[in-house]
């Protein structure tokens, strides 16, 4: 283990002070400015034309090679997860054992990893609830139509099926790029199916999230967030314990002007970064990942508790008025706003996620 400065070090010892935090902040600012610039440019016709042209080339490539599934993001997901756990095992585990950390505490991320991989696999391979001619009539009985977002007797122009309430046709790439529907320009879609209780298409599991695999996806997201947060906590505790044991926070250093200064938080972080660069970088990565995944998890739990899907939430604030197709021919009709008619209390809503078959048969009996 790299040695930290010992206690009672003479105050005239010079420590190199690097302004890497300023440089790192400058780097983040450049990324932010670049992202904002890209978002502004996306509104221009020129860049939209480039995106549309690139999407058409991609679609032509799909047609030529008959691609039906793309496992790139699955491979990327597993590679990133493997790299994080390799760094954790190589850099953190041995040090923590030397500092007498509890073994159960250190092995918790591996337990979460095992559970996460199981539900990741289930999210990838489970049918989300594909609607076909054979089960079309059955799915039509599950949810009632709200006559606003999901009109009765609506049909999917691609599948030529009656659309059950809360269903959606997933065409993955083309809809994400907001291009015209595939039947208008002949492009091949990767999913190209109607999904019962469609939530969204997740590229990380290369599958739609619908009625039959939403429970697996929710547990996958929960364990993924918990594993990132657990590794962040273990790494933070490790670094804090090192600082306390070495009394580094009580040391002083001589600045560039020759003045003796107490070690502040910035200097302490810089020293830890210089001493354990890979560990500090890992900590920063899993912290950012924990916040991002935690935010998405909270959003997913909110949707589950209120019996909404991501698709419905994104479209739910629209005011449907006399200009909408559903209200065509009725110019005097009052504006209609979508309201969630499927929420029946917290436990009933969660039951539809974790026991979709039971909820389906219960509704069918009624």
TrEMBL record:
Entry GO CC:
endoplasmic reticulum membrane; Golgi membrane; plasma membrane
| PROSITE patterns membership | DHHC (PS50216)
This protein's UniProt keywords: Acyltransferase, Cell membrane, Endoplasmic reticulum, Golgi apparatus, Lipoprotein, Membrane, Palmitate, Transferase, Transmembrane, Transmembrane helix
Where is it localised?
Answer: Cell membrane; Endoplasmic reticulum membrane; Golgi apparatus membrane
Gene Ontology biological process terms, A to Z: protein targeting to membrane
User: What does it catalyze?
Assistant: L-cysteinyl-[protein] + hexadecanoyl-CoA = S-hexadecanoyl-L-cysteinyl-[protein] + CoA
> What GO annotations for molecular function exist for this entry?
protein-cysteine S-palmitoyltransferase activity
Q: State a single Pfam family of this protein.
A: DHHC
Report the coiled-coil segments: none
The record's section on InterPro entries has:
Palmitoyltrfase_DHHC, PFA4/ZDH16/20/ERF2-like
Q: What is its EC number?
A: 2.3.1.225
Residues of the Palmitoyltransferase DHHC domain? 180-315
**Membrane spanning stretches:** 20-42, 73-93, 105-125, 217-244, 279-305
Q: What is its main location?
A: membrane
What kind of membrane protein is this, topologically? Multi-pass membrane protein
**Which PANTHER family does UniProt cross-reference here?**
PALMITOYLTRANSFERASE ZDHHC4, ZINC FINGER DHHC DOMAIN CONTAINING PROTEIN
Q: Which family does it belong to?
A: Belongs to the DHHC palmitoyltransferase family.
Quoted from the entry, the domain comment is: The DHHC domain is required for palmitoyltransferase activity.
Name assigned to this protein: Palmitoyltransferase
Give the source species: Cnephaeus nilssonii
